[in-house]
Amino acid sequence: MGGKEKDRRIDLSETARFKAEYEQYFSALKYFALHYIGDEEIVCDLLQDFFVKLWEKGESFDNELAFKTYLYRSVRNNCLCYLRDKRRREAHMAEYEPEETEEAFVNRIIEAEIYALINEVFEELPMATRRVYQKSLEGKTHREIAEELNIAINTIKKHKNNANHYLRIRLEKLLSLIVYLG
Amino acid sequence: MKTDELKAILVRYLWGCATEEEMLLLKRWQAESEENRKLWQKLTSTLFLQRAVGDHNQEQKKKVWKHIVAVRQKRVGRLHWLKVAAAVLLPLLGGMAVWLLQNRTEGAGTTEMVAQQIQAGSSKAIIELPDGKQLLLGNDTVLNIKNRGVLLVNRRDTLNIVNSRSGQTSTGGFHIIRIPWGGEYIARLEDGSVVHLNAGSELKVPLDFGVNNRDVWLKGEAFFDVARDRSKVFTVHTEKACVSVLGTEFDVRAYQDEEMLTTLVKGSVEVVSGRVAGRLHPGEQARVTAEGNLSTAQVDVYPFIAWKTGRMVFENARLEQIMTELQRWYDFEIFYANPGVKDMRFTIDILKYDDISKILNLMAKMQKVTFTQQGRTVVLNRR
Predict the structure, then answer these.
(1) Which pLDDT belongs to residue B234?
(2) Where are the domains of chain A?
(3) Chain B closest CA to A84's CA: distance in Å?
């Protein structure tokens, strides 16, 4: 259990199944939608409406790939619809709407899913460890981080070591799942 | 390169653990198109990683999920009201028909009331075959049908489902056993597992049951006595969660609009709702709420499985819950003249094959409540 088979039918009329799919795709879809609409609150509202309707329809899909394609396409359409309506309201009718190629669309999905994967693993780490990581990504030295967060340099090293170890194991596990899916 | 493979290599690169071969693949991939190069730049930017590391999706995910469930329940609630309206209107129409009939036949001297007493349930089941054909099974129906390589045998309230698969593989069809309100049935599955189905329940058994694993789909309540087979997991799928076992005895209660309960008598089962899973030991019960939250606790098993030994047991239960339960078994309508009585509490242990008036009289003695039977409707009021 837990692992999903690629060719398994996805029946959204089962609440358990629906919830599992929601949990799996929420982060990636949010990131994906944010590309079209920069406002997180609006994106969350759109996703909420989208999932409510999806649940109501209770459709089923032949396999994971069909379902995934449907998800990203629908969310993109919802975003574009929202933008169109908004533009109409604001009377910027003439604004240029770039036509997106299929390749760009697929790459955006890859980007969103990598984002969700990394985010999921980091969300499992303690807050303090994440903060150290963020600071170090901002290009700060151990000394600077130590001063800002008011902790010892050794503690920072410990945080990073623990995290690196954990992240590697977790990511490898998630990755093996991806390859299995692929 | 397939996208999933690409994804894995990209993540490995970001983690500094890509092999030389993989690096080469990435180089080639980048050179393929402008879009690929753009994605590469994006993924390797600090901004991207910062966002992925710092975002708080879990909290947001939970919040949005709550909203989704709330909106959903409001909509389902609306449907529920329609059902209630229908439940009230239909008996009224039925009543009118009876009245009209009576008036018409009065001249002929027959004043016999149409039997409208509330009776205890009995063994009743409807079987739906994979081709959509339905069969009603009463007390002593004997059934011996060969249908698409399937043999149904019914002996004394026990329904044996035997799939005589003559080399043919799964057709994707189901046998559906529906137990109406006031009904009860015992089904014996091909692997020897026995399922007691309570009133108002439905069990779906795929034609290829037992070929790879043993999967069944349940709405309502059933007690499972699963035959041991270590090589084939037995899974009960319900709207809210799945219960998986190898061989044991347990009760699953998954009526709509109610929390789902799984009570374990013997052995060990696993309950999975979304991504959360819980393992039960004998005497434990798992509860799954409408939001899909799962919790486990030690319980006294007896009240939860008493129904299958012909008893109804309530421990300090609300009257409304008791009436809903009685309704499933005796199939009647309820009207609360005083809704305040719904919160009265009772502890009862009684044989359910008795006349319903016995239970009602008993409750009337215990608390300040009255039950009046009007045709198929029981009216509740405060005394």
Answers:
(1) 92
(2) 1-101, 124-182
(3) 24
CATH code assigned to B125-305: 2.60.120.1440
CATH class as words, domain A1-101: mainly alpha
* Cα–Cα nearest to A172, from B23, B11, B275: B11
**Strand positions, DSSP E, chain A:** 10-11, 60-61
The residue to which tokens 């015992």 are assigned: B186
Successive 10-residue mean pLDDT values, chain A, 182 residues: 60 86 93 90 92 88 88 92 80 57 88 89 83 83 87 85 78 63 36
Query: Do the beta carbons of residue B202 and residue B219 sit within 8 Å?
Result: yes
- Among the partner residues A48, A113, A123, nearest to B7 by beta-carbon distance: A113
Domain residue extents for chain B: 3-55, 125-305, 310-382
Decide if B7 and A178 are in contact by the 8 Å CB cutoff: yes
Nearest CA in chain B to A100: B35
Q: Assess whether pLDDT exceeds 50 at residue B145.
A: no
Question: Do A48 and B49 lie within an 8 Å CB cutoff?
Answer: no
- CATH annotation of B310-382: 3.55.50.30
Tell me if residue A70 falls in helix, strand or coil. helix
Predicted pLDDT at B328: 81
CA B332-B335-B340 angle, 5° bins:
135
Backbone φ, ψ for residue A123 (5° rounding): -70, -15
DSSP B342: G
Which carries the bigger pLDDT value, residue B329 or residue B76? B329
| B65 interfacial to chain A (CB closer than 8 Å) | yes
- Chain A positions in Cβ-Cβ contact with residue B262 (cut-off 8 Å): none
Higher pLDDT: B72 or A1? It is B72
Amino acid at the residue B36: N
- Cα distance from N-terminal residue to C-terminal residue, chain A: 18
Query: How many whole angstroms separate alpha carbon B188 and alpha carbon A75?
Result: 46
For chains A and B, count residue pairs whose Cβ atoms are closer than 8 Å: 146
Q: Which residue of A137, A165, A167 is the best one to mutate when testing the B interface, meaning the one whose CB has the most B CBs within 10 A?
A: A137
pLDDT at B168: 42
Nearest to B65 by CA among A178, A129, A26: A26
Instruction: Give residue A111's pLDDT.
Output: 92
Q: Does B62 touch chain A (CB under 8 A)?
A: no
- CA nearest neighbour of B266 among B252, B247, B253: B247
CATH topology of domain A124-182: Arc Repressor Mutant, subunit A (1.10.10)
Give residue B346's pLDDT band: very low, low, confident or very high (50, 70, 90): confident
Q: What integer pLDDT is reported at residue B37 of this predicted model?
A: 92
Please state, in angstroms and rounded to a whole number, the distance separating the CA atoms of residues A69 and A47. Answer: 16
Closest Cα of chain A to B15: distance in Å?
A: 8
- Decide if the complex's ipTM is over 0.95: no
Q: Is the pLDDT assigned to residue B238 strictly greater than 50?
A: yes
Q: Which tokens hold the place of B330? A: 């005796």
- Using CA coordinates, name the residue in chain B closest to A14: B239
Query: Among partner residues B5, B60, B63, which is closest to A179 by beta-carbon distance?
Result: B5
Question: Who's near B182: CB < 8 A, 6+ residues apart?
Answer: B119, B120, B121, B122, B124, B199, B328, B329, B330, B331
